[in-house]
Specification:
470 residues, alpha/beta, Rossmann fold, Helicase, Ruva Protein, domain 3, 5-stranded parallel sheet, 16 strands, 43% helix, binds adenosine-5'-triphosphate
Length: 470
C-alpha cells in the first residue's frame, strides 16, 4: 500500500526543504509547489491526504487555495503556514475552513502533530462534505429543526481543529455539544477533559492547568500533570471561560499561541497538542468591552461559534427529551411516564434553566408520581404550578437552621467566631440550604436565586457537604 501523499506549497526553499525532510522521515510521500499555479496543477493530477500551504506566495495567497479546496468535491484537510505574529491570518484561514495552522518559525514537533491529526481525520472523513449523516451516535437529543441544525454544525466542526466557542444559556447542553464534537472527531480515542474555570481557586489555577514539579510549592510532593497534559492528543473544554481571572488569561493565551506549556517550578516548556473548545453562558464580547476578558484571547477562542438554542425555542423537543430523561432515571420497579396534561404544562413553561431544569423537574416529579404517571401537580415549576413543599422533606435541611441574619451579624455580646473560615462556611451552608428548601431542592432554580451558576452551586454543595434529603 502506498503512503499518504502530502502537498507542500511554499516559495521559500529553506522552509520547503524542512517540511519535505520531516514529512519524508515520517514515511509520507511529498510533492512540492512554489506557487499557487503549480499547486493547482498538482491538485488536479493527484490525490492528497493533506495540503500545507504558506500564506504569501508569488502569485497570490494561500487562503485562495483554502477556499478552492473547501469548495471542491474532495475533502482534503489544508493547513496554512502563517508569518510570526500574524494571528489575524490564522483566524481568517480557520474561519475559511482550514483544518489547522502552523506559525513560523515552524517547529518540527508542531508539524508532526498537525500531520497526525490531519491524517487521522482523513481516514474518517469519507462522508461527502456538509453531510448531516454521521455514523457516530449523537448524544444531543432533539428532533426540532434547531437541533438538527446544531447537529449538522457539530459534524462539520468535528472535522477541523479550529477552536470552537459554544454559547448558550445555562443548562442548554453546551458541554454535551462539546463532547459530541470530540467524539465525532479524529481525536475520539483520546481524552476529553472539561474544566470548570469558575470552580478553581485562583491561587491553584496555573498548577491545575499546566501541572507542577515536585517541590514547586509547599505540598507539591510529586510531579503532576495539569489539564493540558491530561487532554493530550484530545480535546480540552474550558467551561465558564468568562470566569478566568485576567492573569490566567495571559498565561492561557501564551499556551495557545505557542502550543507549549511550562509546569509550575519547571525550567523547560513541553509541547501540548489539544483542541480547545470554550463555553460560557455570559456574553463574552460584553466582557471584552468591560475589560474583564482579554480581546486577544477572545479572538483566539472565538474562531467558530456554535450557539445552542434555549429549550423554549424548541418546545417540540420536550416530549422526546422527557422520554429519554425518564428512561434514564428509571430503575427496576420505579419508572414513570408523563400524563398528557403534564406534557402540555411543560410545553407552556419557559425553562430558564433549560434541559438541566427539565431533568430536575422530572427527577422530583418521579418521586411524587403515583402509579408511575406524572400529573401536573407533580411538576414543581414556577408560575403557580408548584404544590406546597412538604415540611417533612425539608426538616433535615432547614428546620434547625438559624436565620442567616442571626449568624451573619455579630452576636449581641460582640463575641468573635473562633475560626473565620468555619464561620463563613456555616453562613454559606445555611444560605444554600434555604435556597434549596425554597426550590424543593431544584438546584437550577436555587442557583438562580443565589445569582450563581449551577456548577458553582454544585461545587459549593460538594465542598460544604450539603446533600439532598433522603
Ligand atoms: N439536547 C440534549 N439532549 C439530552 N440531554 C441534554 C441535552 N441538552 C442538555 N442535556 C442535559 O442537560 C444537562 C445540562 O447539560 P450541559 O451540562 O451540557 O449544559 P451546559 O450548557 O454546559 O450548562 P452550564 O452552562 O451550566 O455549564 C446535562 O445533564 C445534559 O446531559
Amino acid at each position: 500500500m502506498s503512503s499518504p501523499r502530502i502537498l507542500v506549497v511554499d516559495d521559500e526553499a529553506d522552509l520547503r526543504e524542512l517540511l519535505e525532510i520531516t514529512l519524508l522521515k515520517m514515511g509520507l510521500d511529498v510533492d512540492s509547489a512554489d506557487s499557487l499555479t503549480q499547486a493547482r496543477g498538482l491538485l488536479a493530477a493527484h490525490e492528497y491526504a493533506l495540503v500545507l500551504t504558506d500564506m504569501r506566495l508569488p502569485d497570490g495567497f494561500g487562503i485562495e487555495l483554502v477556499h478552492e479546496i473547501v469548495a471542491g468535491v474532495r475533502a482534503i484537510p489544508v493547513a496554512v503556514i502563517t508569518a510570526f505574529g500574524s494571528a489575524d491570518n490564522a483566524v481568517t484561514a480557520l474561519k475559511a475552513g482550514a483544518f489547522d495552522y502552523l506559525s513560523k518559525p515552524v517547529r518540527v514537533e508542531q508539524l508532526r502533530q498537525v500531520v497526525h491529526s490531519a491524517l487521522g481525520i482523513d481516514k474518517s472523513n469519507v462522508l461527502p462534505r456538509n453531510s448531516a449523516v454521521t455514523t457516530t451516535p449523537v448524544r444531543l437529543v432533539g428532533a426540532s429543526a434547531a437541533m438538527q441544525d446544531v447537529r449538522m454544525q457539530i459534524a462539520r466542526l468535528a472535522r477541523s481543529m479550529a477552536p470552537v466557542a459554544v454559547t448558550g444559556e445555562s443548562g442548554s447542553g453546551k458541554e454535551l455539544a462539546a463532547r459530541d464534537i470530540h467524539s465525532q472527531s479524529a481525536r475520539a480515542d483520546k481524552p476529553f477533559v472539561a474544566v470548570n474555570c469558575g470552580a478553581i481557586p485562583e491561587a491553584l489555577m496555573e498548577a491545575e492547568f499546566f501541572g507542577y514539579r515536585k517541590g514547586a510549592f509547599t505540598g507539591a510532593a510529586e510531579d503532576r500533570d495539569g489539564f493540558f497534559q491530561a487532554a493530550s492528543g484530545g480535546t480540552l473544554m474550558l467551561d465558564e471561560v468568562a470566569d478566568l481571572p485576567l492573569a490566567m488569561q495571559v498565561k492561557l493565551l501564551r499556551a495557545i499561541q505557542e502550543r507549549r506549556v511550562r509546569k509550575v517550578g519547571a525550567t523547560v516548556e513541553e509541547p501540548v497538542d489539544v483542541r480547545l473548545i470554550s463555553a460560557t453562558h455570559q456574553n463574552l464580547a460584553e466582557c471584552v468591552d468591560k475589560g474583564r476578558f482579554r480581546q486577544d484571547l477572545y479572538y483566539r477562542l472565538n474562531v467558530i461559534e456554535l450557539r445552542l438554542p434555549p429549550l423554549r425555542e424548541r418546545l417540540d423537543d420536550i416530549g422526546l427529551l422527557s422520554g429519554v430523561i425518564l428512561a434514564r432515571l428509571a430503575t427496576p420497579g420505579n419508572s414513570a411516564v408523563l400524563a398528557p396534561a403534564a406534557l402540555d404544562a411543560l410545553c407552556r413553561y419557559t425553562f430558564p434553566g433549560n434541559v438541566r431544569e427539565l431533568e430536575n423537574i422530572l427527577e422530583r416529579a418521579m418521586a411524587f408520581a403515583s402509579d408511575g404517571v406524572i400529573e401536573v401537580p407533580d411538576l414543581a415549576m414556577r408560575g403557580g404550578l408548584s404544590p406546597m413543599v412538604p415540611t417533612v422533606m425539608l426538616a433535615g435541611t432547614v428546620a434547625l437552621a438559624p436565620s442567616p441574619e442571626s449568624v451573619s451579624t455579630p452576636a449581641a455580646d460582640e463575641s468573635l467566631p473562633a475560626s473565620l473560615p468555619d464561620h463563613l462556611d456555616d453562613v454559606e451552608r445555611q444560605i444554600i440550604r434555604r435556597a434549596l428548601a425554597k426550590t424543593r431542592f431544584n438546584r437550577t432554580q436555587a442557583a438562580e436565586l443565589l445569582g450563581i451558576s449551577f456548577r458553582q452551586l454544585r461545587y459549593r454543595m460538594q465542598r460544604l457537604e450539603i446533600h439532598e434529603p433522603e
